[in-house]
Every structure is written in C-alpha cells, then in structure tokens.
C-alpha cells in the first residue's frame, strides 16, 4: 500500500509550505487531509449543472457551504474570485484556477487557455493556484509549454500548484478512455514528473480497457488501481475528484478507497452542491467522518 507523502518530503519553498499548511490544517480546524469545493463547472460545462439545484448558481451559496462544511478551500475562476471572495477573504482558503475553457468545442484538441496569473492569485489572497493539463491530446506540446510558465511563476511567488490532470483525446479513447486505469495512472505520473505540488485525478476504472492488448489488461480491483495511481504520483499530493452525481454509497466507497490508497483528500463539486443546503451538509459530514480517520503530519 503506498504511503501518503508528508510536507517535508515535497521539496516546497517557504511560501508554498506556509500556504499548504494553511490549507491542510486551517489553524487547527482541519486535520491535514484536504476537502475542496470546486466551483468552475459553470465555465467548464455551462449553467446546465445548476438545473438540479438552481440556488447553487449563486456563488454565495457555495461559500456559505464551504464555511459551514469546514472545507479546506474553494476553487473558482478569476471572475467569481474578484466579485465574491472579498466578503470571505481569509475565512476559507481560495484556489484560483488559472486556465479554463467551455465544453462547446469538441475535446479532441483540448487546450485550456490561461486567463489569470499567479500574481492575480497573490493579489486575491489565494493559497494555491490550479491548472488544467490535458494529457494525451494533439495540443499537449503547447499545453506543456503554457504550463511551464505557470509552474515557474508559482515557484517564484511561493504559491502551491494544483494540477487537474485530465487525459483527453482520440488516443486516450482508444486506450480505454479518460477514466480508465491506464489514463488516470499516466496522468498522475505526468503531473508528478512535471512538478505539480498537488494533482487532482479522476477515480480510475480498471474495467475500462484498450481495444488492443495492453499492460493494463490484467484483472485489477479498484483498490489496486487507486493504489497504483497514488504510487505514480509519488511525492505529489493526490486529490480524487467526484465527477457527475452518483449515489451517496458509491461516493463514500470511493472516498474510503482513495484515502486507504494514500490520497491526501477529495475534491467533490456536483455531488456536494447539486442538492439543497442541509442535504449537502449531511453528505459532507459523512465524508468528513472518513477523512477524520486519516490525520496528517504538519511538518
Ligand atoms: O475538480 C472538479 C472541477 O474543477 C471536480 O468537480 P466535480 O466533482 O463536479 O466533478
């Protein structure tokens, strides 16, 4: 079983360490695990994601949920951070997403353009920045180059860098798809090799296979698959994403398996906020009970 890396093993400079500690421990409010509330789906998927709970289209609904649910941070694009974070600045850590795109064009040549800078994140009082890296698309080369500049700025300004490592494109589809074990494992390794402090991955599905024989053909359990993904990320902290809304039992099971594998935490959006406020908080409390079993070290 892989072990979860601790802060001193991550090669952080002082600013990154200070900010990551603020996120993971929140001055004693949190236990060294991470539970993020992402809120960039309005850009990435469009307002249809709010149909299930129209109240969630208001960013204030999300920040209230983040505060009452004891989240380690919220994730937004710059427009919402500029207009809504002022009221809550310093109360809940902000992760500023630096790139993003709509889902209107097809994914095949996916490249998520940068629309904000690490300097913006510093000005807004953010404790981390997020970058979506599409692994395996024909635009990968340009993506790596764009990413390199963000990584350099994040290092210079002491800002933790969280990489949304998303396998995409026809080559990935041929090898089992974006949430196959192959694709998620490769994406985790890529983010680690390219210097991410934290990587966000989808939960791997070992039953999704390539059409042609591959090294991922053996029968793997989901636990073995997520163990391997965390091992591939090595000294990059792993966050496991929620994805489209599933049954609560399935989500709690996913959370258990991820934490057992050595993940640092969870980043669940739609599964949390596509329901009314009290119902969200009940679900969050069940997830927090799981995270409470995996306290981390502060050094
Ligand atoms: O990280 C995420 C979006 O940025 C994950 O969001 P979902 O849980 O809604 O898939």
Structure description:
- This is Fructose-bisphosphate aldolase.
- It comes from Amycolatopsis coloradensis.
- By secondary structure, the protein is of the alpha/beta class.
- The chain has one domain (7-291): Alpha-Beta Barrel (TIM Barrel).
- The protein contains 12 helices and 8 strands.
- The protein has helices at 14-25, 41-44, 59-68, 78-84, 118-123, 140-156, 170-174, 181-193, 222-233, 248-261, 270-273, 277-291, and strands at 34-38, 73-76, 94-97, 128-135, 161-167, 198-201, 237-241, 265-267.
- It has an 8-stranded parallel β-barrel, surrounded by 6 helices.
- Helix 9 (222-233) links the parallel strand 6 and strand 7.
- Helix 8 runs parallel beside helix 9 (222-233), helix 9 (222-233) packs across helix 10 (248-261) and helix 10 (248-261) packs parallel to helix 12 (277-291).
- It starts with 13 loop residues before the first helix and ends in an 8-residue tail after the last helix.
- The model has no long low-confidence stretch (mean pLDDT 96).
- The structure holds 1,3-dihydroxyacetonephosphate.
């Amino acid at each position: 079983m892989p072990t979860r890396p601790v802060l001193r093993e991550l090669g952080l400079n002082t600013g990154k360490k200070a900010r990551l500690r603020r996120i993971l421990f929140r001055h004693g409010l949190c236990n060294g695990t991470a539970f993020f509330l992402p809120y960039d789906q309005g850009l990435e998927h469009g307002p249809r994601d709010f149909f299930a709970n129209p109240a969630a289209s208001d960013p204030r609904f999300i920040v209230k949920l983040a505060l009452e649910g004891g989240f380690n941070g919220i994730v937004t694009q710059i427009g919402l951070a500029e207009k809504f974070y002022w009221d809550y600045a310093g109360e809940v850590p902000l992760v500023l997403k630096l790139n993003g795109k709509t889902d209107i064009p097809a994914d095949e040549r996916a490249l998520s353009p940068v629309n904000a800078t690490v300097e913006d994140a510093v000005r807004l009082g953010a404790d981390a920045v997020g970058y979506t890296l599409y692994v395996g698309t024909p635009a990968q080369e340009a993506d790596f180059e764009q990413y390199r500049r963000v990584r350099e700025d994040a290092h210079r300004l002491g800002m933790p860098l969280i990489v949304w490592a998303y396998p995409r494109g026809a080559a990935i589809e041929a090898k089992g798809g974006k949430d196959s074990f192959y694709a998620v494992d490769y994406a985790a390794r890529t983010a680690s090799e390219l210097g991410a402090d934290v990587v966000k991955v989808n939960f791997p599905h070992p039953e999704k296979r390539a059409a042609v024989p591959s090294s991922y053909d053996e029968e793997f359990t989901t636990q073995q698959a997520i163990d391997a993904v965390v091992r591939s990320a090595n000294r990059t902290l792993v966050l496991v994403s929620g994805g489209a809304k599933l049954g609560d039992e399935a989500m709690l099971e996913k959370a258990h398996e991820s934490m057992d594998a050595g993940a640092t935490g969870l980043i669940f959006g739609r599964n949390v906020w596509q329901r009314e406020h009290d119902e969200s908080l009940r679900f969050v409390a069940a997830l927090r009970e799981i995270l409470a079993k995996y306290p981390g070290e502060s050094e």
